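Recall the central idea of this unit: under ordinary conditions, the amino acid sequence of a chain determines the structure it adopts. In this exercise we apply that idea directly, starting from the sequence alone.
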Amino acid sequence: MPVDLITPFIQNLESLATSFQFDFRIAGHAGDGNLHLRILPGTVPIEEWENKLKEFREVLYAVTYSLGGRLSGEHGIGFKRKYFLRSVIQPEELELMKNLKKAFDPNFILNSGKIFDIDAS
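Accordingly, the structure predicted from this sequence is:
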């Protein structure tokens, strides 16, 4: 997150968490904009948690990108955020990522499938 937009981001996060009846914790490195969120069920029944969390992430990640932030700054996208990546980045950015992956890992053996799937043909 751009450092000067951390406060508006947290305000959006608080509002969103309240509307979903979630709790959250933040840790990170505010000086460089890296925030680590822990989203907690709050008062949401456990049988509704996974579905509501998916919906929450969709909205939260859209807010994050609208403020100039990214899904991951230091830990990578991974399987957890892979689903959301296409919905928040420009197709050109995704294509650039895929081309870099192909250039540095032509055999597709490093962290295979962690960020996106690549057609080996």
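Residues 90-121 form one domain.
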